[in-house]
Design goal:
The protein has 857 residues and is α+β, with helices and mostly antiparallel strands. It folds into 4 domains: 62 residues, Calcium-transporting ATPase, cytoplasmic transduction domain A; 301 residues, Calcium-transporting ATPase, transmembrane domain (Up-down Bundle); 150 residues, HAD superfamily/HAD-like (Rossmann fold), CATH 3.40.50; 167 residues, Calcium-transporting ATPase, cytoplasmic domain N, CATH 3.40.1110. Strands 10, 11, 14, 15, 16, 17, 18, 19 and 20 form a 9-stranded mixed β-sheet that branches. It has an 8-stranded mixed β-sheet with strand order 8-26-25-24-9-21-23-22, sandwiched between helices. Strands 1, 2, 3, 4, 5, 6 and 7 form a 7-stranded antiparallel β-sheet that branches. Helix 4 packs parallel to helix 24. It is elongated.
């Protein structure tokens, strides 16, 4: 075999295409930036900006306009940078996968090329551990292949000359040469990848924000109408002391009416803009992107920003077993001799017995030692070699009969002082032929009580343990299975990750139904479910066949009790996701194979494994880099933290907005038109939007959030507790401001001058400090507003920064900020007045908590 020439390689690449997969087109930076403007809260800000721009000519109210522009720009830019950066990191992962090299025969010599360089008709040399790089057929040798990534079928398949081979599958044993017939998207692997054009479902956060935008805009429009009517009623009716003649004269004064109608419209527009929490989109972006970085440190790569929050909203999670709940690799957990004596540690084995054991494992094995570890063979063979550690072969191998699923054993003949046959396989196949066994000293003894051995093996197998028997035939008989001597019974298991138990416990506490979908038999699956704490008295454990015989309506009725689907097929995942979503549940799905990709795409949040296929990662929202279930539970915790942080910020900003709107509505009736100047309002906007958004973005992920039940998919962002705090504390703050401005008692407490500069400086300080202290109220439902405060050092830093700047503005703001330095008594007076919002909110929380039993924010 000569292989292709360089000219033929080039020609075939032009004719049949390259071996790269068609990846889902990702948006460039500019497109992502424009797409971010489609956010429901951003849209309402854009509308507000348009209205402000129209009225800018008649009322140069530029501080709000600039505030809205800054809010839109920062929110969109941070969102775009975060998602673009995450996508670039993901592309790097994909490129690294394509750099994998393979051996190919070209120009009559063996060359190493990267997978994407292969073309149709290339001859690829396949060895133990190689991943098959394209579709084709075997033209030389024979190999055993693991096709589970493609088909979901865990059994190895034997491939002989002319048998088809598929991209993404792995060579487990033997060697061969394949001829490539299909590359890239034309392979079965590529076809599955290209079929993933399913539109991902809308995230719960986006649905909730859309609802919130409608509520806020409605409130804004109602408030605007009230202000419009109230102002005109004040000008036309109240100022004329309700006298009909004067009212009619005023109505007849068209220039006067036009002037005040335009002013009323301007006030209305201000109310609409004030009612919009322009800091919210920026804060949401900040909280998502900051948590994305935290999660990456915890081995969780978030591909889509909203995927984090969606994880926190999960109602149901379908999870794989291998590598997620378990370590993903088989390990020898104990050795037993024919006398039922168990050895849990290698150090317990005596030298004579150890020599027999390691020779039986070393020579009768499909795996091989290489410089960087163990390659080839199945997971059992690798586990055995790993157990004995690196050992050198000293004897000649005469012949080998590879493991076959029909024979259920592997046999190797080695040459020592005489020919010795080493046999490894299923206990039921080997033990019945054993007449002797080696004891702990390596001495042959008669094997009589086989029933005890078989009962023990059956008990271990029911716990999900894989059992192998090792035997030796050192007689002169030509019959391989005559007078065997049992060397050992080996117990192998894909051990449960210790962290998985904690992860399952956390997810269970969080009220999320977890369903394990596994290819294991039902006994093994049930044993693992018991071990990790998934099962209780009401748990339902079924097989894929039983699932297939159930109608959708039947599955819906038992879904809350379903915990395990054994002998599962890829189609089971997609069906279960569809059924769960029909029940209006927020669905999570884990997967690593090509066959898992459709289910990952259909789920509300798809978790792919770091060791999985590129197609699975492409279909997912979140990549679990360490394949660990505990990392999934961390993603859920971070998702819940994000939602909590968003709610805390909404409480803070809407409380401030309610106070400002109340002042705008009440102000014209009590002679207060501009208690805060344009420049002062620019600083207020920065504090209440930009800085507060940053402060609430770094709230800690508290484990107590995992004790709460999942939020319903259609649950509003603003709940009963939030409404209570926004209304009660907002009205108290507004009332405090109005009373301060109108009651002579307060005015008397400050130095007098012709323009009330000290008094108005005090009001500016009062308004800011009320906001600052309300930030502490908004952080927690607890009476103790300082709970977990030091876990958010950014919050503390920003609060201290705002206080420092405010003090500087009070004493050095001058004419620009309309401030004159207060004396110590005046300064402490506004601090004490503004501080009253904290004890007032303590009282509100105490009354609310006593009457209601909910989780607050």
């Amino acid at each position: 075999m000569i292989g292709l020439t360089e000219i033929e390689v080039k020609k075939n690449r032009e004719l049949y295409g390259s071996n790269t997969l068609e990846q889902e087109k990702t948006m460039g930076f500019l497109r992502l930036l424009l797409d971010s403007l489609n956010d429901p809260m951003i849209r309402i800000l854009l509308i507000a900006l348009g209205i402000k721009t129209v009225f800018l000519i008649s009322n140069f109210d530029w501080y709000e306009t600039i505030g809205v522009v800054i809010a839109i720009f920062i929110a969109s830019l941070i969102s775009t940078l975060s998602e673009y950066g995450s996508e670039q990191a993901f592309k790097k992962l994909q490129k690294d996968a394509l750099r994998t090299k393979t051996k190919v025969l070209r120009n009559n010599k063996i060359q190493e090329v990267t997978i994407d360089e292969l073309v149709v008709n290339d001859l690829v040399i396949l060895e133990i551990g190689d991943k098959i790089p394209a579709d084709g057929y075997l033209i030389d040798g024979e190999i055993n292949v693991d096709e589970s990534m493609l088909t979901g079928e865990t059994k190895e398949k034997e491939k002989k000359i002319n048998d088809l081979l598929f991209r993404g599958t792995v060579v487990y044993s033997k060697k061969g040469i394949m001829k490539i017939t299909k590359v890239g998207i034309k392979t079965e692997y590529g076809k599955l990848a290209s079929e993933l054009k399913i539109k991902s479902p809308e995230s719960p956060l986006k649905l909730r924000l859309t609802k919130l935008a409608k509520i806020i805009s409605s409130i804004g429009y109602i408030g605007a109408l009230m202000v419009f009517i109230a102002y005109l009623f004040s000008i036309i009716v109240i100022s004329n002391h309700f006298e009909i003649n004067k009212i009619l004269i005023t109505l007849g004064n068209v220039p006067f009416l036009i002037k005040h109608v335009l002013y009323a419209l301007t006030l209305s527009v201000t109310i609409i803009v004030v009612s919009v929490p322009e800091g919210l989109p920026m804060m949401i972006t900040l909280v998502l992107s900051s948590n994305m970085k935290r999660m990456l440190k915890n081995k969780v790569l978030v591909r889509k920003l909203v995927g984090i929050e969606t994880a926190g909203s999960l109602n149901i999670l379908f999870t794989d077993k291998t590598g997620t709940l378990t370590k993903g690799k088989h390990e020898v957990i104990s050795i037993m001799d024919g006398n039922l004596k168990s050895y849990n540690r290698k150090e317990e084995l005596k030298d004579s017995f150890w020599i027999l054991l390691k020779e039986s494992i070393l020579y009768n094995n499909s795996s091989e030692y290489v410089d960087n570890g163990i390659i080839g063979g199945n997971s059992t063979d690798k586990a055995l070699l790993n157990y004995i550690g690196f050992q050198k072969k000293n004897y000649q191998i005469l012949n080998t009969l590879p493991f076959d699923s029909k024979n259920k054993y592997m046999l190797t003949t080695i040459k020592k002082d005489r020919n010795i046959r080493l046999i490894k396989g299923a206990p039921e196949k080997i033990i019945k032929h054993c007449t002797k066994y080696y004891n702990e000293n390596g001495i042959k003894k008669g094997l009589y009580d086989k029933d005890r051995i078989n009962n023990y093996i059956e008990n271990m197998a029911s716990k999900g343990v894989r059992v192998l028997a090792l035997a030796i035939n050192d007689s002169y008989s030509l019959d391989d299975f005559k007078e065997l001597t049992l060397v050992a019974i080996i117990f192998i298991k894909d051990e449960i990750r210790e962290e998985s138990k904690l992860g399952i416990e956390l997810v269970k506490r969080a009220g999320i139904d977890t369903i394990m979908i596994t290819g294991d038999n039902i006994k093994t699956a049930r044993s693992i479910g018991d071990e990790i704490g998934m099962l209780d008295n009401n748990s339902l454990v079924i097989t894929s066949e039983e699932l297939e015989n159930m109608k959708d309506e039947e599955i819906k009725k038992v879904l809350s009790n379903l915990k395990i689907v054994a002998r599962a097929l890829p189609k089971d995942k997609s069906r279960l996701v569809r059924i769960a979503r029909e029940l209006d549940l927020v669905v999570g799905m884990t997967g690593d194979g090509v066959n898992d990709a459709p289910a990952l795409k259909q789920a509300d949040v798809g978790f792919s494994m770091g060791s999985g296929t590129e197609v699975a990662k492409e279909a997912s929202d979140i990549v679990i880099l360490d394949d660990n279930f505990l990392s999934i539970s961390k993603a859920i915790l971070y998702g819940r933290t994000i939602f909590k942080s968003i709610r805390k910020f909404i409480i803070f900003q809407l409380t401030v907005n309610l106070c400002a709107i109340s002042l705008s509505i009440i102000g014209p009736f009590i002679g207060i038109n501009t208690p805060i100047t344009v420049i002062q309002m620019l600083w207020v906007n920065m504090v209440m939007d930009t800085l507060a958004g940053l402060a609430f973005s770094f709230e800690p992920a508290l484990i107590e959030y995992m004790n709460e039940k999942p939020k319903k998919k259609n649950e509003n962002i603003i709940n009963k507790y939030m409404i209570n705090e926004i209304l009660v504390t907002g009205i108290y703050s507004a009332l405090l401001c109005v009373l301060f401005l109108k009651l002579p008692f307060f005015k008397e407490l400050f130095r007098k001058d012709s323009v009330d500069k000290y008094f108005m400086t005090a009001f500016f300080g009062l308004f800011i400090f009320i906001g600052i202290f309300n930030a502490f109220n908004s952080r927690t439902k607890r009476i103790n507003v300082f709970a977990n405060l030091f876990k958010n050092k950014i919050f503390l830093f920003i609060i201290l920064f705002v206080i420092l700047v405010q003090i500087i503005l009070i004493y050095h703001g001058g004419e620009l900020f309309r401030t004159s330095g207060l004396n110590i008594m005046e300064f402490f007076l506004i601090i004490i007045l503004s501080l009253t919002v904290i004890p007032f909110d303590w009282l509100r929380k105490y009354i609310y908590n006593k009457k209601n039993n909910d989780t607050g924010v």
